[in-house]
Amino acid sequence: MWPTLLLGLLVASVAGWIITACLQAWRIRKLERSHEEIQVEETLVFDFLHGLGEAFRETIRPQELHRLIVEGATRILDAHGGALYVTDRTGSKLTPAFISKSCPPLVDVPPNILQQAAAAPAALESFLRLHTVGPGEGLIGRVWQTGQSVCVNEFSEALELAKLRGSAFGSTSVMAAALQYGNQDLGVLALANGPMGAPFSQGDFVVFKSIAEQSAFALYNAIIYSMANEKKRLDHDLEIARDIQRILLPSEAPAINGFQISGINVPARRGNR
Asked: How do 94-99 and 150-152 pair as beta strands?
């Protein structure tokens, strides 16, 4: 009896040791994979920031910056597509600044446009590139209005997206973030996965929010650069006007019999501030 009991305990101990070793190895592999994923994400985010930084080494057109932001975010998070909406000059609506070709619609699309798109995809592309979004209008408008970032995998509160689900134009998952810097509401950045894509994870959402923050900073810097360049151009124009005034205006009062004239001409030096 005792030998059998001891043998049973030995077998149980060995089995327990094997199970523990297997679990430990599985945990180690999981941590290694997680570490590798974090390293890859860090590298991609660094490349994204490096790309934005390089863009500011020379004068960059707004359209090019918008493209860099959307394509960079899409690449980092392996999304099917993305879109950037920026606040217009009046601050009353969002205008589409850049929409990638593979991005599912993120706004409400009229039925007639969907019918046309079945035969001519360009009809949908034209609509999306011209459609503006007001505060609270659909998912994009609500994100802009509230300033809150969202990761949506079911669209019970986004009916404009829910009605497209199951179609070729539907989305499986959407992330959207308001782009704010200081007191400036700059727009909304959004990424989406289509019908064949996997939902975004919470890890993806954390990285996305970080990208949105850096994108807002880049857009704000672009505005400051634009204002500085405009001021430099105006100062240059005023300097030219000053030189022209100095050439055209008399340097001394004219001599007129019977009159004594005294005056001075001072060319303009600076515009009003």
From this structure: unpaired
Beta strands 94-99 and 81-87, pairing class: antiparallel
34-225, CATH topology level:
Beta-Lactamase (3.30.450)
151 DSSP assignment: E
Amino acid, res. 96: P
Residues 6 or more apart in contact with residue 242 via CB below 8 angstroms: 267, 268, 269
Distance between alpha carbon 124 and the CA centroid of its chain, in Å?
22
Q: What is the number of alpha carbons within 13 Å of residue 221 lying toward its C-beta? A: 16
Within the chain, where are the H helices? Answer: 2-55, 62-76, 111-119, 121-130, 138-146, 159-162, 202-248
pLDDT in tens, 229-262: 667 777 777 777 777 777 766 666 667 777 776 6
Q: Sign of the C-alpha dihedral, residues 57, 61, 62, 65?
A: negative
DSSP string, 77-112: TT-SEEEEEEE-TTSS-EEEEEE-TTPPP-S---HH
Tokens describing residue 208 = 């996305």
CA distance 8 to 12: 6
The total number of residues shown for the chain amounts to 273
Q: How far apart are CA 214 and CA 200, in angstroms?
A: 20
Structure tokens belonging to residue 46: 């660094």
Amino acid at 112: N
**Whole-prediction pTM value?**
0.71
